[in-house]
Amino acid sequence: MRRIPVVVVAGFLGAGKTTLLNHLLARARGTRVGVVVNDFGAIGIDAMSVAGQVDSTVSLGNGCLCCAIDVSELDEMLARLEPRVDVIVVEASGLAEPQAMARMVLASENPRLSYGGLVLLVDAAEFPDDLARHLRVADLVVLNKVDRAADPAALEAEVDRLKPGVPVVRAEFGRVDPELLFDPRPLVRHGQLSFEDLLAEDEGAADGHEHDHVRYESVAFTGGALNPVRFTAFLDRRPRGLYRIKGFVLFDVPGHRQRFSLHTVGAFLRFERSAWEGPRRTELVLIGTGLDTAAIRAELAACAEDDPASVNPQSMLEVLRHLA
Questions:
Q1: Helix axis angle, 98-106 relative to 71-81, nearest 10°?
Q2: Contact, 91 vs 18, CB < 8 A?
Q3: Do residues 241 and 167 lie in contact, with contact meaning Cβ atoms separated by under 8 Å?
Q4: Buried b (16+ CB within 10 A) or exposed e, 1-18
Q5: Which residues are CB-neighbours of 121 under 8 A, at least 6 positions away?
Q6: Residue 214 φ/ψ, nearest 5 degrees
Q7: Three-state DSSP state, 120
Q8: 218 pairs with which residues across the strands?
Q9: Taking burial as the number of CB atoms within 10 A of a residue's CB, which of 125, 145, 237, 239 is the most buried?
Q10: Phi and psi at residue 168, in whole multiples of 5°?
């Protein structure tokens, strides 16, 4: 059963959450995106900002999502979106507590939904003093408005000091590649540019910024069975700049010969188990910036297991603890 990821976007007031969301929607490439917008106020400004370009929207106004409803009510809201979309993005109010938001989504009892990680927007122009508490549950930090910051590198260093190792993506105007958060559908061309292509060309020409795909790079890896202990050790020490990993893993350990789908967003890590379709092999795509391609491929090659039948099934516990 395909599970729909629920990605939480959080951040202080004015950090650029709605701008980021609108950018993701404009670059969804045919992916059906459902949105839960949490406006704190009687007039849902954020909901109106995104309603024109989203497949399905549920708006909760005049209250903070983590205080105004419980898990069952959130499940009801998500259930209204789930049959019609490929991914759900929860845009939390600037007043919402990221910890509470993450707990609510993780506590969902809907078997068709899965937690997709928490993205924390940080305003580089108005860097907050009380960031540490919100960073605790952040899987990926988007340092937004870096064009207005005097020293973005110093701000990145401060984020790393507060939460060592958390991946940090620099952004201007909320421009983050959707592939860092979810899988856009493959773009099918029919002999002419799509509306999204034209929009990207116009924006690039207007503001002089390079397109999003130029800012990130990907590493593809294909191999046989991987050793569960060595591979989870690689995942635990992911190199700086590696923002996302997706694909399928073959462990082939006795009792665990199914296909393990892997999905990471920043520090968030999830495996899903299913029957094999197609070749039984490991196929991964790693996305990030400033990646040492040769070193990553060498580390993954070192995870190879020549005799998976001899591996102690207990070693799969490191994988199973991340099972959705």
A1: 70
A2: yes
A3: yes
A4: eebbbbbbbbbbeebbbb
A5: 9, 10, 11, 12, 15, 16, 17, 20, 142, 144, 174
A6: -75, -25
A7: strand
A8: 287
A9: 145
A10: -125, 125
Contacts of 103 (CB under 8 A, 6+ apart): none
Q: Tell me whether residue 231 is exposed, middle or buried, using C-beta atoms within 10 angstroms of its C-beta: 0 to 12, 13 to 18, 19 or more.
A: buried
What the block records as the tokens of 97 is 């507590």
From first to last of its 324 residues, what are the pLDDT tens digits of the chain?
A: 678 889 999 998 889 988 888 888 888 777 888 888 764 333 333 444 444 444 455 554 434 444 445 677 778 878 877 888 888 888 876 656 788 888 888 888 888 888 999 999 999 999 988 899 889 889 999 999 999 999 999 999 999 999 998 999 999 999 998 888 888 665 444 444 444 444 444 444 444 444 444 367 889 999 999 999 999 999 998 888 899 999 999 999 999 999 999 999 888 999 999 999 889 999 999 999 888 999 999 999 999 999 999 999 999 999 999 997
Number of neighbours of residue 34 by Cβ within 10 angstroms: 24
The C-alpha angle with vertex 63 and arms to 57 and 68, in degrees rounded to 5, equals 90
Q: What's the half-sphere exposure (Cβ side, CA atoms, 13 Å) at 134?
A: 25
- Please give the Cα distance from 93 to 64 (Å, whole number): 6
Which structure tokens are listed for 121? 């927007």
Cα 324 from Cα 60, distance rounded (Å): 28
Sequence-distant (6+) residues with CB within 8 A of 24 are 33, 89, 176, 178, 181
Predicted TM-score (pTM) of this structure: 0.77
The CA distances from residue 302 to 58, 140, 283, 285, 293, in Å, are 46, 27, 15, 17, 14
Helix/strand/coil for 90? strand
Give the chain's largest Cα–Cα span: 62
